[in-house]
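Fold it.
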Amino acid sequence: MFVTEQMRAVAATLLFGFAGGFLYDVYRAWRRTTRPGPRLTALCDLVFWLVLAGAFFAVLMPVNQGEMRLYFLLGLGGGALCYFRFCSPAASRMLGRVWSKVGALRARCTARLRTWRTFLRRSGNSRR
């Protein structure tokens, strides 16, 4: 493998580590907002890490023919470290606000659906 190919591979793993950190923040903000129980949390953790491992495998295969090398692990760790050090605090605040707004929108939609359901039940019962 030429040096330029190795540099591209390191850049790809740095970006993947950065993206993985962001996805973890998205997941963490969702968990903070929804507060799933311990069993659902364990299941979601398993699914999250399996999806991330599958995505890593999908990146690793074309870039390095599936071979695991030390600089790949260092690139992943470096990308995640950069994200968590410099971007995570601001992203966590922003994602917390986004999930709160999504939760509020969901609550409003649920309330309206309940109102319509009640209205439809009452109007259906009055015809009988």
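The mean pLDDT is 87.
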